[in-house]
């Protein structure tokens, strides 16, 4: 069942050598949504010095996408131990550490995780000793809980009366990354009432600060902030806004650092929301959409990039409102790759009867398009404007609008493109992502530009280490 079996076994052998007290077994793990899976786990104690020396019992569950997804970690207190809820441990004994949040293979290892666990527990001891009466009551409680589940509470055991009325049926989405863009997406989605529930997955270290702190203070309805990948479970749309802030020197290094970041995110996200649509807003969007598709193993229809949606909406607005070219605006699209290499195109031609009229119409349209592109050139893509574009795309997916958007989609087979690259093309979006690609009007200049973009993007992808 494990996708990377040899890597997993190799690492667990190393753990056994360093911490021989750990015992390994296969058990059924129950996730928050009630789904279950047989997972490898190991239990043991980690040595902690906090005045005296203590052995802290823990259990680590190894996901089937290990080592690309971090383990799920719990304290395993005995009947005479109580859990000290703190910044690294919740009331259920779930362990949260920066090492888990920033997990990235091959840099991150289980041995490294245990070392950080020891260091953090030495700063703040996670368990305390119960009195005999407390211990008896806790033993009774633990016995009851053990009948329900191992790990987290089985959501299926909830009574339907008084349970979560939206459970299993709500339009839930997750935004990964709590930077300016991530917060802008949350605010735009909330303002437009697009989703029933929004989870903002904050992968930064430390307590909430800046925008996430403000979101917590002012408590937007139906918005949850979490550092735990499992909070994203059963999302119908997952928006990726994260970008690496490393010290890369070259453009290729920048992209590679983003790829490394995604290697620690995409497997976990796709594990918890196996039927979601991945909507990529990270840069460069064409390459990061390709990376998301490869790492998730999702069908191509369910991995899309924000691509030219914002530029297309602006382009259509300029044509219709500013240049009074209403007839052109509805069929105009910005396609190709984001940035200077984007190109205007059309999905239908004017109803003309001969070649001369066709050429005259095309020349007239080209002049208007050039004017519109000049106006568009001065418009930057700020976080809030991209956030509005993301909300627009999310609404089309969650509400199954079947609306046409210019989004980054797999372009192989289009315009004689033979490589696996993602380019912005007009697509009909619905609950399963891309429902259908809309045919563009044949234009040799557009085809040449798309093929050129595909070639340069493919060359970059070949140099990346996935």
Automatic annotation (TrEMBL):
Gene3D superfamilies: Lactate dehydrogenase/glycoside hydrolase, family 4, C-terminal (3.90.110.10), NAD(P)-binding Rossmann-like Domain (3.40.50.720), Ubiquitin Conjugating Enzyme (3.10.110.10). GO terms for molecular function: L-lactate dehydrogenase (NAD+) activity. Residues 1-131 form the UEV domain. It comes from the Eukaryota. It holds the Pfam family UEV. InterPro entries: L-lactate/malate_DH, Lactate/malate_DH_C, Lactate/malate_DH_N, Lactate_DH/Glyco_Ohase_4_C, NAD(P)-bd_dom_sf, UBQ-conjugating_enzyme/RWD, UEV_N. PANTHER family: L-2-HYDROXYCARBOXYLATE DEHYDROGENASE (NAD(P)(+)), UBIQUITIN-CONJUGATING ENZYME E2 VARIANT 3. This is UEVLD enzyme. It comes from Alectura lathami.
